[in-house]
Amino acid sequence: MSDNQLTELIERYLNDEMSHDERIQFELLRKNDAAVDSRVTEHKQFIGLLKQYGERLELQKRLDAIHNEIDVHTLKEEVTIHPAWIVQLWRHHHSKISVAASIAIFAILSTLFFTGKLNSHDSRFVELRDEVNRIRVSNDQLKKTVNTSLITAKANKPKPSNPGNFRGTGFALSSNGYIVTNYHVIKDADSVYVQNAMGESFHSKVIYTEPQNDIAILEINDSTFKNLGAVPYNFKKSSTDLGENVFTYGYPGGEVVFGQGTLASANGYQGDTTEYQVSVPVNPGNSGGPLLDDKGNVIGIINGKQTQVAGAAFAVKSSYLLKAIQNIPSDSLSKSLILNSKNTLAGLSRPQQLKKLKNYVFMVKVYNQ
Amino acid sequence: MNKELKASAPTDSEIVLGILNNSEITLKRLYTTYFPMVLQLIINNNGNEDDAKDIYQEAIIVLYNKIKSGQFELSSKLKTYIYSVCRRLWLKRLSQMNRYGGDIRDFEEYLPVDDEVDNHNERDIQFDKMENALQLLGEPCKTIMEDFYIHNRSMQDICERFGYTNADNAKTQKYKCLQRLKKLFFQQK
Q: Exposed e or buried b for every residue in B2-29, given b needs 16+ CB within 10 A?
């Protein structure tokens, strides 16, 4: 029996087209021959699947026809939940918005970085050390060269001719050459010189710093340095009252300058309790200068000003200076550091006070790479 | 339009009876009644109207076959059943397209219908195989197969259509075609 004949038989059997006898005969064959039996099952399933497939196509066609009658577009408008426009904006453009935001953030950060705004803690606060500009340097160098040659001729002692990369002010703590200035004036320094009112420079060494209070203690270790004589001012331990007349004396821009004002606030920049706010005109170079009251007591160290507020300068309170002095490790001190307790400025007129003061206030010159 | 449809929404038993009786009108009413619900589900869950059409038709087919096979019991509302099947199908589709964000915005309550959807998918795979096999079979075999087994045309008709001189020739041709179709079907993975 050929394959085709068998298939025909199976079809006739499944379609119920067999005569009674034929059917009995076929069922017997099916029972005895497992191969035939499986062919029957397989054929039945396969044709069934084929028919179902046809029905599915038919149904799909019917559904498509129905679907085409529906106005999907209107319906879509009806059922769509329209989110708020900002959400839609975000959904449609979030990639673009993200890219734009990243670029903006990058631009801001790089601008801040290149303008150096990231490095200082606040752009509205400036530390008052003086960065000496190039023209000035070359000018001074010429001047200094002349001076140096004169001095060399006279004293036969070489003096540093460079006016320094940064300048600030400092003042004597004791007659034997201890000087206080701001930490930010001397930070990153390779070498530090102090220059007195007569224009004589002395090599100094940083012996102690307190960055958190912006205080640095220097010691003059130059062989040409002679004892200063008794310091005319003393250091106030208690805090000073608001409204007290105060003055400062320093080297902004390389020249000695006197500034006067009043104590404006017991707290410094953004409520910093370690500082006073004073209404004294100050400029870069004033940093590290003494802040004195009428009687000639040192009440603070000038260290900064606020850029957006006129006449607001800040000074580290003298009590923190006294604490810093106590904190100096004893092995850093080659000489004894004894603070003067006798105030010889009290009762003098301002010009006389300044005259006495001038030998004790120094220009601090900082050299680095 | 929506309101009108809602007003004329057929009852569930009407639909079941209508489908059992092959009523075209019932099918149409069923289709138009629940399409907006499914469109809403798909559109508001990262799909478009074409996705909605595909998913909805699949669900209707699942329901249709279930009713036809006599397995359908009206234990829940038809609406819930259709919604559940669509939801399940759409979740599957979304994860296949890697567009599933982990949550779906629901508009109706739903039942677990995983088994039915899985059965449906298996059957779909079989149908796809059949479609491929028929395509590969080529003419005239394809038409002969479709005419004879799907449209139940007689051999006589087929003879005339293809110009076979006698019915035996046509029969031989038909069996050859069937054999090739089976071969093509079972060869597929």
A: eeebeeebbebeebbebbeeeeeebbbb
